[in-house]
């Protein structure tokens, strides 16, 4: 895709995003915002999983930390500006990652995955047990949502204004998505790929593997914090099950697997497909777990590279087939 | 007999019994991981499935011993089927695929359990012969806890004998260190894998039926106990049975004394212990460097 084409695509996407609330009404706008939030969350996990080869079963703890920090800040600090509240959520998620990274960058593979499962489980248990801070099972609800105030320009109310909040959230999510895309294009992003392919050789080449991993880890956590913080504001309710539960950790993994691991937009596509299936499943059946479980098994068995992976394979096959249709049959 | 000492002893016994249960689950996980490199995230679901099957057998026949015999075999059968028809086919896609697949199967088992037995807690009655208390040297012990400890030690002994005193055990140990080589020597490794997977799930199944009378049988069982078992494997070191044994006992004791002295934060205590161990030894207490 050329630069002009890409710019054109951005403009078209921006107009399409802006047109959603007036065209589709509040129900589908909210559905789309949920999709957008989980897209950013999934892409942030894919930075670790697809780009760095770090498999985390506990990405929900950054999502949840972002959500809880924003909710707690708004509940206890009166007159806190909206952007500052989101900033606190993001900073809290990044801080948690910073605290954990001395431990987690030393391990990889299954140990990394299990450590994250354990840490996020600990966060979940803490959120349930520390009633006087987190509200226990009820979570934190009905915290004030301030208006977005830009000095010298004016102020936009957010409380009970779904369209306003949609624009605010979409802008931040797009920014986060763009930052992550930009990150993968930087030299640091290339080192990230090198670590995925062969950490030891990267080390021999003189790159600091542990430190690079730590930077990526904190960056991914911060972006998960953006998604979590906006999720909390969106629902005006943060609960342990909704923001820290094991399902919240598994959802982005499923999205990445469905969409296509290691592609930047694969997780976004996967989120769209998964949200659609979940929406339909919960409308027609009570056995959502069964549907999700079957989906995972089928995807892994028959399309381990995800939808984008299958599409790419078909395209390559078609291209190779086009000039000499008979040539491929011998090899395949 | 002063009450403080008897409290310590009672809690210690609870801890040991729970630690033994954890070890039964964790050792199955560990052997499967050590041999096949597969972290079976559905392991705890099979443990739960066995508890439900045990409940069903007791509800139908009223015989606990029959449940202890049949239910683990039933869930081992489901486990072997998963290994043969699903897991073996995704082996080529690496650990990611296996982890996701086992999560998927765990999710399906959970859905099946919920739709067959419902979501409420079910009570499995312990047999009358084990429900009393016994007095040894002036101290009171609940018989059932002793039974669990004895059962686990018995299985541990049998497994150790199998692993270190038989030809099959030798093959398994050889396959742990280099499966490809053993395969090349003309031993049917996929069959051995299937067998080991079945035995691992069977041990988790024994734990499921054994713990059911103490805890109740409910759909959250897999999450609650399974998480502890995973933590044991991670902390003890992947593939290390001795590490799993030590950590299981420490965890059992930590959780029972933790509940006694600081009930709210007992689960945190366990995870904190894990974090400290892993911060010092990233591959677990007795884990090998390349796991």
Description:
The complex is a heterodimer of chains A (332) and B (291). By secondary structure, chain A is mainly alpha-helical. Chain A has a domain at 24-244. Chain A is 77% helix and 3% strand. Chain A is built from 15 helices and four strands. Chain A has helices spanning 3-52, 60-76, 82-104, 109-129, 131-134, 162-185, 187-197, 199-204, 209-235, 240-243, 246-259, 266-284, 288-302, 306-321, 327-331; strands at residues 140-141, 148-150, 154-156, 237-238. In chain A, strand 2 and strand 3 form a beta hairpin. In chain B, 76% of the residues lie in helices and 3% in strands. In chain B, strands 1-2 form a two-stranded antiparallel sheet. In chain B, helix 1 (3-36) crosses helix 8 (221-236) and helix 8 (221-236) runs parallel beside helix 10 (266-280). Chain B is globular. Chain B starts with a helix and ends in an 11-residue tail after the last helix. Chains A and B meet through helix 4, helix 11 and helix 13 of A and helix 3, helix 4, helix 8 and helix 10 of B.
């Amino acid at each position: 895709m050329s630069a002009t084409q890409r710019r054109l695509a951005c403009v078209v996407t921006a107009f399409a995003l802006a047109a959603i609330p007036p065209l589709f009404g509040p129900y589908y706008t909210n559905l789309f915002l949920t999709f957008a939030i989980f897209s950013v969350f999934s892409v942030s996990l894919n930075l670790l999983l697809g780009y760095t080869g770090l498999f985390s079963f506990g990405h929900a703890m950054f999502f949840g930390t972002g959500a809880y920090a924003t909710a707690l800040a708004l509940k206890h600090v009166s007159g806190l500006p909206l952007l500052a509240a989101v900033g606190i959520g993001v900073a809290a998620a990044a801080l948690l990652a910073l605290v954990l990274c001395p431990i987690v960058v030393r391990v990889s593979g299954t140990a990394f995955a299990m450590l994250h499962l354990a840490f996020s489980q600990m966060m979940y248990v803490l959120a349930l047990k520390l009633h006087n801070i987190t509200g226990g099972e009820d979570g934190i609800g009905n915290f004030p949502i301030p208006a977005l105030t830009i000095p010298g320009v004016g102020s936009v109310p957010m409380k009970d204004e779904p369209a306003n909040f949609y624009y605010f959230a979409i802008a931040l999510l797009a920014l986060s998505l763009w930052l992550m895309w930009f990150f993968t294009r930087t030299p640091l992003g290339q080192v990230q790929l090198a670590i995925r392919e062969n950490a030891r050789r990267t080390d021999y080449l003189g790159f600091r593997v542990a430190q690079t991993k730590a930077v990526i880890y904190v960056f991914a956590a911060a972006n998960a914090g953006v998604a979590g913080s906006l999720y909390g504001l969106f629902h005006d309710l943060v609960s342990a099950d909704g923001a820290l539960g094991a399902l919240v950790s598994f959802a982005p993994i499923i999205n990445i697997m469905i969409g296509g691991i290691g592609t930047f937009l694969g997780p976004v596509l996967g989120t769209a497909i998964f949200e659609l299936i979940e929406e339909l499943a919960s409308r027609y059946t009570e056995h959502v777990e069964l549907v999700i479980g079957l989906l995972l098994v089928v995807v892994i068995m028959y399309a381990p590279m995800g939808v984008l992976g299958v599409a790419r394979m078909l395209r390559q096959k078609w291209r190779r087939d086009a000039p000499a249709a008979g040539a491929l049959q011998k090899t395949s | 007999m002063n009450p403080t000492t008897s409290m310590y002893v009672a809690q210690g016994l609870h801890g040991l019994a729970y630690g033994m249960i954890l070890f039964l689950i964790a050792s199955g996980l560990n052997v499967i991981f050590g041999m096949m490199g597969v972290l079976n995230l559905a392991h705890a679901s099979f443990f739960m499935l066995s508890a439900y099957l045990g409940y069903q057998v007791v509800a139908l026949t009223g015989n606990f011993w029959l449940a202890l015999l049949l239910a683990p075999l039933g869930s081992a059968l489901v486990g072997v089927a998963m290994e043969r028809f699903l897991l073996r086919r995704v082996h080529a896609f690496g650990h990611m695929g296996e982890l996701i697949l086992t999560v998927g199967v765990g999710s399906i088992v959970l859905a099946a359990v919920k739709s067959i037995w419902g979501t409420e807690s079910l009570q499995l009655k312990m047999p009358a012969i084990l429900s009393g208390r016994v007095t040894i040297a002036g101290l009171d012990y609940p018989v059932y806890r002793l039974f669990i400890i004895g059962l686990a030690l018995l299985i541990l002994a049998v497994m150790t004998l199998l692993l270190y005193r038989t030809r099959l055990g030798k093959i398994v140990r050889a396959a742990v260190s280099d499966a490809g080589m053993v395969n090349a020597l003309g031993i049917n490794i996929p069959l051995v894998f299937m067998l080991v997977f079945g035995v691992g799930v069977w041990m988790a199944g024994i734990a499921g039926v054994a713990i059911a009378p103490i805890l109740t049988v409910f759909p959250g069982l897999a999450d609650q106990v399974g998480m502890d078992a995973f933590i044991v494997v991670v902390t003890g070191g992947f593939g290390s049975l001795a590490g799993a044994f030590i950590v299981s006992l420490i965890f059992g004791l930590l959780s029972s004394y933790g509940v006694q002295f600081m009930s709210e934060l007992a689960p945190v205590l366990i995870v904190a212990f894990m974090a400290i161990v892993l911060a010092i030894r990233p591959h677990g207490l007795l884990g090998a460097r390349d796991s």
